[in-house]
């Protein structure tokens, strides 16, 4: 790895050149001014976001898909029905909905719903228009049509709908529940996960850093960076749509990397203080050296996440953009605000030191990680085999993974949307909760919809075809189709493909009419299909980027290939955990899951993109230290032992911190957020504790000097990439073996 020239540092080792050094010096020399500038900038961004920012949406646009074609056609031809709907579900617990008293209660509920702002119509279950009554007469529903999409409906109006309808039926024997896309878009805000994640991170930092002040600094700067990232996200939402899950994922990633990046710099700062440097110089040294690695780490995460754009699904790409915003916030905070804070705190960073740590002098050559490094390098084959066995064991369930999208049927059992879902399935069959709709452009063939309805009704997977809704011009119709199976069923996907590929083309053969199958269930299948078709390109992108960057940084194709392959192992372990928890139900009760369902189709791809960025960070921190020692001594195997002993504590601490932050989010109510928490939590813990601390050192010890192989032609072509500058000049040239072309 390249190193600074002798002229880039003072005799005492304090860097003097470079843009990062200049930034660090400005913050460390004028800490109060820097903090004031930060506070002013944050205030300005907050004001801008409150003025120009936008709301989050719960929409899934899938460009080019059949579902999107159906949606676009209906929005154009039925502008009055462009809004979303809620459902009021009635359950007579003692009598029959056909009784006079029940009819009066249902009428009162419908009247209350009609008075809610934004409601343009309320279905009549007794007339079969926008509603219905079950065969046994105990369960019914009425559709409540709003004039806007769910993303634009005020939460207060949705709450008023629920409150007013319940008030209108208070004292009756009717059980009232609510479902539909409008209700799904309203999620109660809770910050329990963030609080628990911060508490766990504080505990780990206190143990690792040994003092209350050293613990408080990374926590504080992480909160600032998350605040910056979330404010930027709100501002960006005023110009483009972001899915409602985006901020939670962004906070999850932002807290983890924000604490980790600060931890790296704080650790280097304390080392510089211990070497006798002043507070100002120590802050400059820490930021100029570890800060360089932080910038690289943040850039790799952002580059990896950018791979989501190749999927071609906007909301998936924007999940990555939202997460990248908090990562950028973490990097900016670490290299600009943190030096000022460290310079102000100085030696007070040891305030509140744990009593047991007072007389301890850190010695990497004799500590627990030195002993661990010795164990791994003495028994590399056994340790590598054990690590592979652990990862493969965790990955086994992934062979049974089924991708799809969960619905209200997987919501917590005490929520009104889940109760509505169960009642509808009980009264009308499982297909009522995932109806399809067929958008028919019947220009030139006004009888096409009737013929199509008759053909669709003959399919064995179809339970019923409702009366078509025709627009005023008579050229477009909407045909609701109820299936015999639930939205999550594999048979439902088979029926959808049969309708699209066989039934509808046969029914419209020779007709100028066109038909498109849409609906929430169809959109989930379209998302899964698009992701499946783009997965090879996505893998090529992130693996290729990883290989290229690490080859440039370490001048070794072996190190780069090893990093990509071992990261895939961590990913498969995460996919196995997702399958075991969410599809098999293992430990489901412990995290608030009472039903199983498929893994959301986009989650593995998002987890993989984030993991590649984060795991590359750990690989870089570890291999950089190993390479530094190898350059100094020329002893490839000894460098592995020294590198693990020196940097192992930081990698383990960083991995545990990020892992517990992710795991804290499994306590939230949203199933998608739980899945991200489990997937990323397992991935990071396995990657940091098993892959980077066991498998990678064992493999590099077995490879010896061969680990640093690169073809001569590639070495000439690839530009050098310096990741972390050392405050002490390294000898040149580096004794890196280069293979023949």
The overall pLDDT, averaged over residues, is: 86
Radius of gyration: 30 Å
- Count of helical segments? 22
Number of domains: 3
> Could you give the distance between the termini?
21 Å
CATH architecture of the largest domain: Up-down Bundle
Query: According to CATH, what is the topology of the largest domain?
Result: Multidrug efflux transporter AcrB transmembrane fold
Seen as an oligomer or otherwise, the chain set is single chain
Number of strands: 12
Strand content: 5-15%
Walk me through this protein's architecture.
- This protein folds into three domains: 425 residues, Multidrug efflux transporter AcrB transmembrane fold (Up-down Bundle); 100 residues, Alpha-Beta Plaits (2-Layer Sandwich); 84 residues, 2-Layer Sandwich (Alpha-Beta Plaits).
- Helices cover 59% and strands 8% of the residues.
- The chain contains 22 helices and twelve strands.
- The strands form three sheets. Strands 1, 2, 3, 4 and 5 form a five-stranded antiparallel sheet that branches. Strands 7, 8, 9, 10 and 11 form a five-stranded antiparallel sheet that branches. A two-stranded parallel sheet has the order 6-12.
- The chain is elongated and about 85 Å long.
Can you summarize this structure?
This protein is an alpha+beta fold and 741 residues long. Helices cover 59% and strands 8% of the residues. It has helices at 19-29, 31-52, 66-77, 100-114, 155-168, 181-184, 192-209, 212-236, 246-274, 279-306, 314-345, 368-378, 380-395, 416-428, 448-457, 490-507, 520-554, 557-583, 603-633, 636-664, 671-703, 712-717, and strands at residues 85-92, 119-122, 131-133, 139-146, 174-179, 403-404, 436-441, 462-465, 469-470, 476-483, 514-518, 599-600.
């Amino acid at each position: 790895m390249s190193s600074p020239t002798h002229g880039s540092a003072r005799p005492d080792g304090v860097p003097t050149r470079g843009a990062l050094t200049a930034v660090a010096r400005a913050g460390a020399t004028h800490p109060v001014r820097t903090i004031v500038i930060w506070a002013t900038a944050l205030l300005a961004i907050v004001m801008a976001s409150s003025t120009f920012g936008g709301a989050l949406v719960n929409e899934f646009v899938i460009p080019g898909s059949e579902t999107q074609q159906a949606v676009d056609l209906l929005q154009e031809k039925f502008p009055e029905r462009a809004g979303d709907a809620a459902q009021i579900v009635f359950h007579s617990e003692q009598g029959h909905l056909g009784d006079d008293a029940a009819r009066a209660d249902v009428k009162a509920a419908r009247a209350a719903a009609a008075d809610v702002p934004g409601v343009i119509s309320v279905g009549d279950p007794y007339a079969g228009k926008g509603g219905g009554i079950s065969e046994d007469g105990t369960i019914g529903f009425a559709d409540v049509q709003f004039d806007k999409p769910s993303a634009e409906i005020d939460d207060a109006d949705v709450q008023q709908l629920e409150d007013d309808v319940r008030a209108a039926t208070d004292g009756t024997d009717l059980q009232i529940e609510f479902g539909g896309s409008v209700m799904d878009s309203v999620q109660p805000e809770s910050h329990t996960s963030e609080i628990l994640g911060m508490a766990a991170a504080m505990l780990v930092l206190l143990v690792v850093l040994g003092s209350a002040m050293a613990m408080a600094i990374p926590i504080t700067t992480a909160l600032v960076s998350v605040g910056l990232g979330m404010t930027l996200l709100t501002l960006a939402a005023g110009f483009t749509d972001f899915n409602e899950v985006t901020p939670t994922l962004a906070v999850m990633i932002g807290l983890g990397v924000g604490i980790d990046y600060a931890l790296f710099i704080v650790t280097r700062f304390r080392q510089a203080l211990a070497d006798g440097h002043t507070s100002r110089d120590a802050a400059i040294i820490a930021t100029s050296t570890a800060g360089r690695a932080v910038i690289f780490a943040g850039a790799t995460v952002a580059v990896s996440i950018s791979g989501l754009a190749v999927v071609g699904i906007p909301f998936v790409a924007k999940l990555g953009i939202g997460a990248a915003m908090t990562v950028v916030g973490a990097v900016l905070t670490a290299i600009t605000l943190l030096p000022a804070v460290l310079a102000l705190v100085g030696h007070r960073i040891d305030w509140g030191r744990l009593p047991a740590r007072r007389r301890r002098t850190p010695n990497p050559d004799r500590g627990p990680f030195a002993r661990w490094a010795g164990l791994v390098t003495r028994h590399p084959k056994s340790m590598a085999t054990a690590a592979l066995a652990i990862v493969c064991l965790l990955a086994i369930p992934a062979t049974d993974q089924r991708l799809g999208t969960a619905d209200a049927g997987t919501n917590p059992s005490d929520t009104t949307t889940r109760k509505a879902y169960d009642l509808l399935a009980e009264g009308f069959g499982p297909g009522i909760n995932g109806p399809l709709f067929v958008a028919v452009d019947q220009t030139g063939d006004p009888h096409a919809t009737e013929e199509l309805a008759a053909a669709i009704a003959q399919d064995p997977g179809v339970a019923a075809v409702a009366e078509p809704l025709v627009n005023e011009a008579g050229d477009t119709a909407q045909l609701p189709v109820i299936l015999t199976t639930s939205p999550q069923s594999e048979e439902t996907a088979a029926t959808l493909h049969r309708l699209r590929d066989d039934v509808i083309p046969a029914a419209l053969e020779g007709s100028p009419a066109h038909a498109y199958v849409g609906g929430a269930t169809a959109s989930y299948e379209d998302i899964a299909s698009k992701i499946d078709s783009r997965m090879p390109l996505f893998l090529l992108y992130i693996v290729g980027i990883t290989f290229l960057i690490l080859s440039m940084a370490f001048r070794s194709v072996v190190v780069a290939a090893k990093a990509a392959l071992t990261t895939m192992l961590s990913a498969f372990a995460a996919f196995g955990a997702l399958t075991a928890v969410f599809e098999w139900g293992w430990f489901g009760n412990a995290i608030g899951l009472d039903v199983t369902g498929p893994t959301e189709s986009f989650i593995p791809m998002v987890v993989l993109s984030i993991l590649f960025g984060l795991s590359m960070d750990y690989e870089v921190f570890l291999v950089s230290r190993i390479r530094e020692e190898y350059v100094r001594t020329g002893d490839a195997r000894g460098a592995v032992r020294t590198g693990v002993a020196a940097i192992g504590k930081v990698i383990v601490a960083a991995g545990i911190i990020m892992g517990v932050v992710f795991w804290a989010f499994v306590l939230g109510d949203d199933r998608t957020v739980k899945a991200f928490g489990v997937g990323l939590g397992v991935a990071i813990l396995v990657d940091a504790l098993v892959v980077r601390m066991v498998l990678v050192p064992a493999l590099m010890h077995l490879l010896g000097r061969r680990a640093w192989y690169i073809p001569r032609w590639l070495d000439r072509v690839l530009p050098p990439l310096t990741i972390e500058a050392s405050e002490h000049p390294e000898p040149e040239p580096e004794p890196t073996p280069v293979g023949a072309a």
